[in-house]
Model the fold of this input.
Amino acid sequence: MHIKVAEGNSVSLYQNKNNDNKFTSGSGSKPAMPPINRAGRPSPLGLILLAIASVGWGLNFPIMKLLLTEWPPLSSRGLAGVAGATALALVALARRQKLSVPRPMWSRLLLVSTLAISGWVAFMGLALLWLSASEAAVLGISIPVWVAFLAWPILGERLSPLRAIALITALAGIVVLIGGNGFEASIEKLPGVALALAGAIGVALGTVLTKHFPLKMPPLALAAWQVGLGCLPVAVIGLVIEQPQLAALSWVGWAALVNMTLIQFCLCYVCWFAALERLPAATASIGTLLVPVVGVLAAAVMLREPLGVREIAALAITLGGVAVALRS
Done:
């Protein structure tokens, strides 16, 4: 079982055939197993940390959409990521994690960072020019689907019939979401759909390659490097092409930019890794499915996006398919 969280996190959760939970930070290194509650229940603190990370990443979808009304996508996403990576590096140093990268790992680190971070940050930011925040959130759930499909030819992990049906169900939910407003409306959204799926597939490929070519580094240090290396080229391209103006940001825009920097790219990662130290892999993976739910609900409240039968049905079908696939 693999999962990649919605904002391009470099963590993968793997469950072997004997259902033994193995944790990797995208690095292949295996931290100590999380403490087991003697009563057989998940750690309450772990659940709280998981909730903070999932809610933070879910809220980011409408916040990104809001920021796009004042600042262009590549500049806002790229600069926030670079600043967030710097904050992550400081947290890693405070926790005495080494930031040094072994020389043989640089090529792999650059490749995975480009696929999992650069692609997601750039493509999802651009996708929001065509899509609503809720549509982007639902498309983001498709990452585990592409991980499963790509793991077959690359890692030799065959799809079981149950998992294949579950993944097809998840894709059907996406079809319901995109095709529910009629043919013409769907055609207008195709650029956004293509960009969002390209970002999701890039994250999935980065996840599979991370398992195939492990990156042996401490988790927060690895996240800092991946976010920084992935967001830096996006920020540079954005500054050159989009030429954003700070004067264009209102206090709402500044608040959104600060949120993306400190919450999405820093706090959520710290909470995610802390949760992984305390929870079973299955609990953590299913818990991240809260991200699109929060994204859809928050978009309805914050941006007054529609939340009707189509949106709820698409979310339920997609979530159900992904949840079954992750547990199978």
Summary: The radius of gyration is 19 Å.
